[in-house]
Write a structure and sequence with these properties.
Length: 50
């Protein structure tokens, strides 16, 4: 799923933090407080990051 501008703006805080998946490891993290941040999931030397 590709994140659209409308989907990013429509993301509202919930009781728990959640993720909106993008492509190739990039996702939007929406915290319970309402803060939105971009995060990247990666693998380096067999260890997963983020």
């Amino acid at each position: 799923m590709t994140l659209t501008f409308a989907a990013i703006n429509a993301a509202q805080p919930r009781g728990k933090s959640y993720k909106l998946a993008g492509r190739q490891g990039l996702y939007l993290f929406v915290a319970a407080s309402g803060t939105k941040s971009w995060r990247y999931k990666y693998d380096f030397g067999g260890r997963k990051g983020c």
